[in-house]
Amino acid sequence: MKRRKLFESAAETMLFASAFLSIVAVLFITIFLFRSGMPLFRKVSVFEFLFSSRWEPTAATPGYGILSFIVGSFLVTGLALFIAVPVGLAVGIYMAELSGRKSSKIIRSSVELLAGIPSVVYGLFGIVIISSVSRTLFGGSGYSVISAAIILAIMTMPTIINVAEVSIRSLPKELKEGSLALGATHWQTIIRVLVPAARSGIIAGVILGMGRAIGETLAVLMVGGNAPIMPTKLNGMVRTLTMNIITDMSYATGDHLTSLFATGIVLFLFILVLNLTVQLALKKSITEMEGGAGA
Amino acid sequence: MRKATTSRPGSRHRAAMRRQGIAFGMIRGFSFMTIALLGLILGFILWKGFRYSNIDRSTLLPHAEASPDGLVLAVHGDQDMPGIDWEELYGMYTDEYINWSKLDQSDFDLVPVAVDPLTEDGARVEAFLFGSEAEGGFPLWGGLVEYAGSAEAALKVVAERQGAVTIVPAAAAKAFPGIKTVPVRRLAIAMNQDATEFVDESYLEDLTAQNIRDLLGGRITNWKKLGGPDLSVVPMAPPMGSALAAEAGRAGLTYPRPTVPQPATDMASYLADIAGTSGAVGVAYAGDATLAGIPLAWMTRVKTGWNLTLRYLLEPPRLSGKTGGISSIIANTFFMLLLTLAFAAPLGVAAAVYLVEYARQGKLLKLLRLGTETLAGIPSIIFGLFGFLFFVNILHFGFGLLSGSLTLTLMILPTIIRTSEEAMKSVPRSLREGSLALGATKLQTIFRVVIPASSPGILTGLILAIGRAVGETAALLFTMGSDYNMARGLFSSARGLSAHVYLLFAEGISFDKAFSTATVLVVVVLLFNFAAKRVIGRMHRQAAA
After folding, report:
1. Residues B514 and B416 in one domain
2. Residues A167, A216 within the same domain
3. For residue range B72-105, what is the model confidence (pLDDT) as tens digits?
4. Is B104 helix (H, G, I), strand (E, B) or coil?
5. How far apart are CA B373 and CA B370, in angstroms?
6. Quick check: A218 and B379 CB within 8 A?
7. How far apart (Å, rounded) are the C-alpha atoms in residues B357 and B360?
8. CATH number, residue A133
9. Which of A87, A188, A246 sits opposite B474 (nearest CB)?
10. Range of the domain at B207
11. Highest mean pLDDT of the ranges A264-278, B68-82, B239-253
12. Touching check for A247 and chain B: CB below 8 Å?
């Protein structure tokens, strides 16, 4: 009996260790990233790193400014959300409120498959189709901010659609029935009652999508042009933080390599802030809302 | 009566309904656009993956001669070569190629065999290959060339040795066993130097088949029309009754008769006429024109064919994937997924068991959840950096399968934990209580009751996670390495499908092959999705029963 008890508690410890592994992984990622990236700041000030756009790591007097890549990341992501949010919201509304069983099934499968397509495949599609479409519509070389944003919009749409649908569907029935009973049309109910009520869930979805978009590497690498300059035009080339890391990783050494890890730190912090916002602030408001509705 | 109902509230209602109609129409449009978008992307990738359509740029006409100058090019009977360009043939005998990989994608060493130039047959071959160079005394035979005493001896070498090639008189090769002959493309369009001048940064365009017919037929009268200089086109006809004239006729090239100026009577003066007459154009053998210093016109033709064949799946890659197939890359992907699953599945399920069965509501559970969610949000390039730092460098695993799989394990762990958690939560309490009441311990209940009951859900999660892992690239480039040969062990550098797609494109190796590999990748992802759907479907049916 005692041995069995010992065995049970040993097993529990093992299970706990597995569950704790995620936290360990996050900690290790943080520690190693900082350990490898921070030494750069002994030579370059944090201010210069973040707010200079001179990226010449292999020059005689090297410059390690990543401002243009930060701007690039946010420009591309912002533009992608500008396209993906309205479309994603519309599709989410359709699936939650308007579609029949069959059409919602087809659309759901399509959205799942879109989410499953590997980013390198999106990249190939982007090189041929998106870049030539954007070349004819917007001019330039076709490898541009706008092409990268379109690819990212397609890739983040599934996240936004899913979250929008789930948060509208999980609203209490009384909200909709009350609005309809007051004489509002179905559309008025959706846009004035349901969407505002599902607001925090939708915002959480948008932020999650934003995190995905900022962290996306290959698809934007293949269509963004990758020129290490400040993006000034929407049809001009762009390099994002992720592109900067992957482009130079294969040959960088010394301070140059350290600067790539430092770029990784900046990207990691952006993602962490976005994720924690969703986890700590928005999830709380969702549970509060659900609790309030239940009471 | 109807008029009475059109009071103000009614019209407002109608306006609202109209707005609703417009809004719903747009929403419906966006929704079906999603399906169309998926169809477009998948259709495009599959279509480009299966069929290639290349614009081929060459100075040679597509017409191939079975026996140029009464000679034939003979290769081993198993060699897969439908035709050869003049430059390739010339290159074979001048040490330009050392094996067949660039010629017909097979792997054999190239053995150029020539009949001894001191014999009569050998002298014919020398004149054919090197033209006036042969007469001048400097035939540039390559160092690889092996010499045979007679045409029969040369053919015997070719019949016995795959990879060998020879040029012999057509009569000798007729009905010789074990060989086959390859037609040669050597007709080109020669132009006077003046037509190739730059004008305002514009240069003569690549010619299409129609352009050539129009140029020689007198329907295009000025080079300006093709982007060249403002210069009259002077079509030249090859000497009457010459072999070149006959061959040009077989290639479908016709001239208006009579041409101005009068056709030359022998080949040398014909070429001299083209070189000396401003704006002249005429058909010529590529070798002769090059020796005479006359520029050749670039021509484009669209080549199409099957890209993704069974052979592509079963052969190993060669020349960085430019030729050959992807068999070793498929194998590497399989090993990678198997290894990742071996790490991630037990860890993920164990974590889910703890979260569902052991953890009490409170700070600890919240912290564990936060860890999983945060891990799920980290982008793959950061995982790549971490894997490079930790597995590759600090643990000294190097670039290889093990480092790659461990990195992937961390990436897909949150997905497995989350889906397993959901599956275990949906197991009814009564099952657990029944098991415990029968005297089973908690651990026995978990392993004999809860996990079996939730296995379809866990399985679905595993399949979905693996489906994500197979498409991962950024995290693997700097952890798993990029060797395209089959991995020989855990520490062996290996390249998976998605990395292969990226590297084929990024290293400029082959756009077509990138699409074929992408097609294989997409099919694998679709299969995983389909499998997950089947498992979910079965689960629902079981639940209903």
Report:
1. yes
2. yes
3. 898 888 877 778 888 888 888 888 888 887 777 6
4. coil
5. 5
6. no
7. 9
8. 1.10.3720.10
9. A246
10. 188-297
11. A264-278
12. no
